[in-house]
Amino acid sequence: MGLPCVFFLLFAFLPRVFSALSFPVGGRVTIPVPSAYQPGFVGRAFVLAAGNAPPDFRAALSVEAIAGAGYSCSVVVLLGDVKVWASDHVTKFIPAGRCVLEMTPDGDLQLMDRAGRIGWRSGTTGLGVKSLLLKKNTGNLVLADAQNQTRWQSFEHPTNTMLWGQRLNASSRLTSFPVNSSSFYSLEVHKDKLVAYLNWRGERYSYWELQPRAGRSIAYTRVGSTGLKVFDVNSRKITQILAMKSGAVRFLALGSKGNLGLYYYSASHGKFEPSCRALELCDLPLPCGPYGICSSTNTCAYLQLSGMEYSTSFCGLAISEVEMVELRSVVTVLRTSSSASNVSKEECLASCLDDCSCAAALHTNGHGVGTGEWCSRYALVGGAREVEVGATDSSYWIKVARKGSARHETSASLVTKVLIVGGVVDAVALCVILGGLVYYFFKIRKRSVDSGTNNS
Questions:
Q1: pTM as predicted
Q2: Signal sequence: where (predicted)?
Q3: Please, what CATH class does the domain formed by 17-156 belong to?
């Protein structure tokens, strides 16, 4: 298989010469779309450059191959080779024939194809926009009027990356969309905390939080040279995440697996590297995918249910065709805002059985005055991780469809069917090794005895 094609076109197909510092009204750039699909194809026409020492900010018109969907057309901002903003982050524009970037006479920045179909626009018609600028120090892409007042900026339309100096408040969020997945991740600002969510089929589950001290309210967060800073309405810093490396932080990214990372540029390696990451593997929302379990050894294992089946949809099945099964010494990192209090384990499991959209339930025994028992229900089996025996007051249960059974066992006779997790796999591997040593010992011993008998 050949290597992916990557093409960089500098000021290509321009009807006039543009400054590297601005893209004016009437500017137009075109990239032809390949007639045949080429996996890995990237074609870019760079229209703006900040003029810094490498790694530099650059803005470009971009045509990129999409798996199974042809080509996308977008405006992108790059920091070195890292894409830090893209107009098609949420919705892809699939052009016909060619990808065109144009600043219209009335000040609207538009992407269109050969047929004139508009796939993206800034929405700045009639606002007096005169040029597109790229801020030298921050990489903010700005549409400015004749008085150099900002009429639109990429910082107000965040993707999965926050650049140095960029703010995130309650009206915006970071989002990350894994390839070929119906789920996505988001980082959001609430009054009392920063929260990372797994968004799955209309449901949302938190898996990471950063809270200031009690009584402090969050107004916005901003990336600084030493990390992520959180501020109140008076712009006073109330909490922060500090980078672990000495290099200046250039951006924060929400990764394709939902992890948060602060990144700095390593001159010795010639690339951006993580200064710190918020989560370890088993703290991620789907480190092993649905129905996977992250073991104490940071490896993935998957459920093996003897005589039963698991499913991602239980609607259409009778209650007698499903049952709840406990995963011993397993919990989930996912948290739901709709947990019910003062619910017994039997009631918790029964409520999940009655709801065909429920795939799993977490029941927690309360200790102390006023704590009670808690029941959390989930529409997916995810975020499962192994814990030490006796290390938790919670029990994690998944719904399974019986294989060839029309009878439902009562909750009193629920039997724990064991599930293979990393620790069990490790134990099996250990047994195999020990078995091999025992075999080897007796084999050598037998050979020695036979040799001695022959010699005598």
A1: 0.83
A2: 1-19
A3: mainly beta
